[in-house]
Amino acid sequence: MLFYPLSFHKVRELLSLCSYTQKEAFLQVLPYEHPQNASQLWLLPQLPRHEKDETYSAAYQLLDHTIEPKPLIHLQNDLKQIYFPPPNYLYPYNEELKSFAQHRRLLLDELPFSIKEIYDHVKNGFLTYQHGIIQKGKGYECQRCGNSDSSLLATFSCYRCKGSCVYCRSCLMMGRISSCTPLLTWNDVENVNETSHELGWEGTLSPYQEKASEKLCDTIEDFFAGKNTSSFFLIWAVCGAGKTEMLFHGIALALQKNLRVLIATPRTDVVLELEPRIKSAFPKTKVIALYGGAEDRFTNGELVISTTHQLLRFHKAFDLVIIDEVDAFPFTVDKKLRYAVSQAKKERSLTVFVSATPDEKMKWEAKTKAILSVKVARRYHKHPLPVPKFQWAGQWDKTLQKRRIPSTLFRWLLQQMDREKQVFLFVPSVKVMEQVVVILRDELDSVVEGVHAGDEDRREKVMEFRKGNTRILVTTTILERGVTVKGVQVAVLGAEDRIFTESALVQIAGRVGRSPEEPTGDVVFFHYGKTKEMVQAVKHVKMMNDLGEREV
Q1: Residue 318 phi, psi dihedral angles, 5° rounding
Q2: Of all residues in the chain, what percent carry a pLDDT higher than 90?
Q3: Two domains, one topology: 207-376 and 389-551
Q4: Relative orientation angle of helices 502-509 and 532-551, to the nearest 10 degrees
Q5: Least buried of 180, 195, 310, 400, by fewest C-beta within 10 Å?
Q6: How far, in Å, CA of 370 to CA of 400, rounded?
Q7: Can you name the CATH fold of 389-551?
Q8: Could you tell me which CATH class the domain 207-376 is placed in?
């Protein structure tokens, strides 16, 4: 998109030279209020031909003889001089446009409004522009996702500015952002609605959950009263501790203070599982769930549950940010997702990390009190975590090539079938998953399914497993978190594979024994040689069990 950069010195000069008719037209395309500093710049967009009326055509005719329109990136050095007027409260702004753009940074293509209507809101101070991509040193940086990796930046022939544009490949799935693309956000002060929020959850917290819940509430109270300086809080709770329920009272406290609350998680599966639980717990609160493919991705809510990818559209939106499973893939390896969280927070905000397996840096910060924290070392039903066992499986990959399941694993599966148990069988890759599913369907008189991240039927298969219609679900690490099935038993084939980190193995083991009716169960690592990660995972589980035992 191209803009005419107009200093207000130039505006005064043009107004003094043009005819009365031109002057009337020109004034209509300028902001309703001019700045005191005449050196500031006004950006007048070059509207598409079909949106030009007589007023804009007359103004452009005047400008085309004096000023050359430019893409935004060519105006980067003038960034601090660009003028946006304060909101004009006499202007009847579009409520629907406000609901789209408030607390977000959106592309023109994401707003279902004409460029002329969008520009009318800019003139009246309700929308502002920001560069989509800027030059940084000898390279470029995307302002939506923070990417400056040259391998993830490319050029294309742009139909909007009729030139060669740089675009970002890192966040391309959110819509193409380029060097001539503005990001738009709502500029008005947020109206605080005095909503009567209530916690509809009537469950009871265990003493361990109660401790964490109280500490969270105290932290929220103190932080927003200005009593503590740390803006980070860690809840380190074992798998199955009931982390979601621990958050309820803290969320309710924040909502009652009219704070905007975000629960972010790296995976869509977890959003879909949390949505009905959160809506049930907060029946009078507007709760929205955002994930790829969600229908209402541009709706505003008082409590938002979102994948971290969807946060790339938010800007200074949330007072309380809760990141569930902060150590989970892809959040741990994708810089743009961490950037997205930092951009979605308000300048003064509290971030709560929730994890069963925090990384070493976060553990150290908690230990040294660099961040506030609380540990929950027992599940809500007060039973210890099942400790994983090691089982030799030999060269299991070669056994699979002969269309056989390793004998130790096969015997274990038969035992679980005799006990009428369901099984999660974790494998290191999609290829292995496909091999195992085919063999087990031939060997066992049971329903066997396989799932992976790219499986379009994943949700349906998981639902069938939860209903008990599938006996063995062979899965990659995609189901290591967020899925709870009563009485399930767990095996890992190829536990020595590098994809099975300490964190992943602890999470996998945490699928077992979550129900108070069946608090125990089998977790077996079938391997071709123990790894440090396997050993550390077992140590982690035992350490939390020991800590929980001391707290009993």
Answers
A1: -120, 140
A2: 75
A3: yes
A4: 50
A5: 195
A6: 49
A7: Rossmann fold (3.40.50)
A8: alpha beta
